[in-house]
Write a sequence for this structure.
């Protein structure tokens, strides 16, 4: 019996470590990019307010999954407020939806790293659109979003978030959409896990703008995000429908509906 208990604890710890490792590995891999400066700029740039970066993108193109079957997750960040005392902390309020279950959440993002990115070339046609800007940057933070425990199927989202921005010629922070013509373009990438309050469930849970980080074989799209056929039954059928018939008002209503109100 003691051996069985020990084995069960080891399995639980191993799974929990794996879930944490995914977000840590995501951050480590990004920060080791050869085109990313090794100089840490967090202390130099936290005087800027980064709130608008997470509010920039239309919710219809923010995609996410939860669990090993890539069940569709919708996330809507509704408000982001910088802490009045600690400028590296942001208070976030939003809602999540899995199937027809909608939960609200409150939590924080704590900035851990800001590095300057030195791109080789820009692939977009309008090469002078951002002329005179002061540089492109990558921000990393640790997020912890707590769903209301009185709601059904509630828990905590936690992990790492990457947000890309640039500083324009007027010294204003802007959401980095310079490479939005690229097939693989994405931003505001969240990588982590969802843990139920009773501790019985821990699930992989990632989302992002336009593409989902670490989505394995689920995203088969070339020019844009497209879910693989075997995952359509897990909430992705409406996304496939709009790719097939983009002019259909019925399909647009399903994908663009304001589900968080």
């Amino acid at each position: 019996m003691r051996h069985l208990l020990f084995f069960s604890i080891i399995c639980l710890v191993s799974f929990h470590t794996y879930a944490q490792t995914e977000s840590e590995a995501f951050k480590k891999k990004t920060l080791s990019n050869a085109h990313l400066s090794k100089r840490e700029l967090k202390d130099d740039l936290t005087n800027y307010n980064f709130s608008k970066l997470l509010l920039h993108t239309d919710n219809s193109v923010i995609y996410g999954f939860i669990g090993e079957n890539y069940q569709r997750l919708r996330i809507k960040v509704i408000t982001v407020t910088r802490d009045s005392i600690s400028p590296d902390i942001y208070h976030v309020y939003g809602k999540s939806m899995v199937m027809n279950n909608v939960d609200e959440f409150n939590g924080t993002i704590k900035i851990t790293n800001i590095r300057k990115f030195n791109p080789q070339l820009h692939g977009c046609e309008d090469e002078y659109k951002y002329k005179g800007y002061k540089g492109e940057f990558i921000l990393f933070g640790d997020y912890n979003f707590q769903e209301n425990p009185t709601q059904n199927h509630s828990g905590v989202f936690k992990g790492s978030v990457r947000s890309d921005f640039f500083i324009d010629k007027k010294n204003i922070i802007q959401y980095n959409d310079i490479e939005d013509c690229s097939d693989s373009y994405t931003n505001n990438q969240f990588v982590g896990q969802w843990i139920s309050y009773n501790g019985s469930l821990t699930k992989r849970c990632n989302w992002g703008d336009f593409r989902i980080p670490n989505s394995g074989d689920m995203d088969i799209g070339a020019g844009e995000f497209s879910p693989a056929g075997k995952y359509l039954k897990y909430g992705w059928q409406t996304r496939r429908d709009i790719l097939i018939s983009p002019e259909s008002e019925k399909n647009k209503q399903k994908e663009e509906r304001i589900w968080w109100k």
Notes: The chain has one domain: 2-218. DSSP finds four helices and nine strands in the chain.
